Amino acid sequence: MSDPHTIPSPNIWHWPRVYEAENRAQDPDGRIARVLRTIAPLQNKTIVDVGCGTGFHLPQFAVEAERVIGVEPHDPLRRDALRRVAELDTVEVLAGHAESLPLPDESVDVVHARTAYFFGVGCGPGITEAMRVLRPGGSLIVVDLDVSASPYGDWMRSDLPKYNCEAVESFFEAQGFDLERVDTRWSFPDRLTLRSVLGIEFTERTAARAARSIPGLDIDVRYRVHWRRKPRGLELA
User: Fold this and answer.
1) Could you tell me if 211 and 195 are in contact, meaning their C-beta atoms sit under 8 angstroms apart?
2) pLDDT tier at 216 (50, 70, 90 boundaries)?
3) Which range (57-61, 125-129, 197-201) has the least confidence?
4) CATH for 10-229, among 3.40.309.10, 3.30.565.10, 3.30.365.10, 3.40.50.150?
5) Binning pLDDT at 50, 70 and 90, where does residue 235 land?
6) What residues have CB less than 8 Å from 174, skipping those under 6 apart?
7) Domain boundaries in the chain?
8) How many whole angstroms separate alpha carbon 217 and alpha carbon 197?
9) How far apart are CA 195 and CA 191, in angstroms?
10) Starting from the edge strand earliest in sequence, which strands make up the sheet with 218-229, in order?
């Protein structure tokens, strides 16, 4: 049973199969992956994916990384992740939270979190915990949707009128993060899948309006990639 203090992620918790289709649709051109490789190459490295869900990104990381660790607090999702990576010797999935990672000090090279809402304004404890488990020179990378960009951001702001994009970006900047914006597209195999994904991300009214505005099977979506390196400390000549 999941920790009662875990904050639910309604889309993937309640509609994991639709969320799987959403993951498959995201960024087919691999633009985010190229940015991540530039920030933190994974060859001979250990990466932990915080809030890994059903483990969608774990096999992708395993292609390059020496060791991959998924951390997920919700039992059903963690079981799905374990099944996904059962035949991958370099991947493991652990129970845990962003604020209490089940890892030793200075044991990983990259901490990755994607569209994980526990990494936003007020996530100081999660940042501190990431810095604890990172080796000197390692990177914390937070990939999130850029709500300031149309059209996807328009739909999000319609449902979340109190969301303050400037405040979020100012928070990360004050915490010492760099920022890169990445323009991507989501590409769906058919209209039914597209409409189903919109239905788990937005209210019914906004999802219907969004679907009417999309002429084909692709949606332009911009991401923010925030990253911060752990200092290596003093280097003596």
Assistant:
1) yes
2) very high
3) 125-129
4) 3.40.50.150
5) very low
6) none
7) 10-229
8) 12
9) 6
10) 91-94, 67-71, 46-50, 108-114, 134-145, 218-229, 178-187
In order, the DSSP letters of the chain are: ---TTSPP-HHHHH-HHHHHHHHHHB-TT-HHHHHHHHHS--BT-EEEEET-TTTTTHHHHHTTBSEEEEE-S-HHHHHHHHHHTTT-TTEEEE--BTTB-SS-TT-EEEEEEES-TTSSTT-HHHHHHHHHHEEEEEEEEEEEE-TTSTTHHHHHHHH-TT--HHHHHHHHHHTT-EEEEEEEEEE-SSHHHHHHHHHHHS-HHHHHHHHHH--SSEEEEEEEEEEEEPP------
Total count of residues recorded for the chain: 237
The confidence score (pLDDT) of residue 38 equals 97
What pLDDT score does 7 carry?
66
Bridge-based pairing state of the strands 134-145 and 108-114: parallel
Q: What is the pTM (predicted TM-score) of this model?
A: 0.92
Taking 50 as the threshold, does the pLDDT of residue 206 lie above it?
yes
Tokens of 106: 């200075």
pLDDT at 21 over 50: yes
117 — pLDDT class (breaks 50, 70, 90): low
On whether the CB atoms of residues 190 and 218 are closer than 8 A, the answer is no
Residue 222: strand pairing partners = 183
CA-to-CA distance for 51 and 19, rounded, in angstroms?
14
- pLDDT given for residue 1 in this prediction: 46
